[in-house]
């Protein structure tokens, strides 16, 4: 097997990305403190043509060298917005007919492996702070919560890893 070159990968330009059909999914980052995690989620969102990212609360925004370090320019292709209040974003998304899920460990959560989504719908997924998770006030306004099953000794995954898993699952079902 020969490793593919950059030219053989035939990636689209940021301009072509902005004009391309997107996955009907937006990402909401609720008080994410790590700039590396933010950048990584931009990069994953670019890979799966996510419609937009909402950066909320203490989540930093581009341009920032530490976001760029992991985003590698994806912060220039993926549409993003900032809002101080995550709850305001959820309310806005509901008005735009999005189904909103928090990615969180809660009672009666939907296991990611059992998630079945409607290709005719638009979705939003909320990822929370690395220590505190998604704030309860935001969870209370979501349509449901999705939990990633885990079988080891740790109770959580790194947010960028969790985002990669969840976004891939949505992409497979929606795009």
Report on the structure:
The chain is 38% helix and 22% strand. The chain has 175 residues and is of the alpha/beta class. The chain has a seven-stranded parallel sheet, with helices on both faces. The two termini are 28 Å apart.
What descriptive keywords fit this protein?
single chain; 175 residues; alpha/beta; seven-stranded parallel β-sheet; 8 helices; 7 strands; globular
Compact description:
The protein has 175 residues and is an alpha/beta fold.
CA radius of gyration is: 16 Å
- Low-pLDDT stretches are none
- By DSSP (H or I, 4+ residues per run), the number of helices equals 8
Helix-strand topology string: HHEHEHHEHEEEHEH
Task: Enumerate the strands of the largest sheet in spatial order, edge to edge or round the barrel.
Answer: 3-2-1-6-4-7-5
> What share of residues are in beta strands?
15-25%
List the helices and strands and how they pair.
Layout: H1 6-9, H2 14-19, E1 23-30, H3 35-47, E2 50-56, H4 65-71, H5 74-77, E3 80-83, H6 86-95, E4 98-103, E5 110-111, E6 122-128, H7 136-141, E7 144-147, H8 159-174
Parallel strand pairs: 1-2, 1-6, 2-3, 4-6, 4-7, 5-7
Helix pairs in contact: 3-4, 3-8
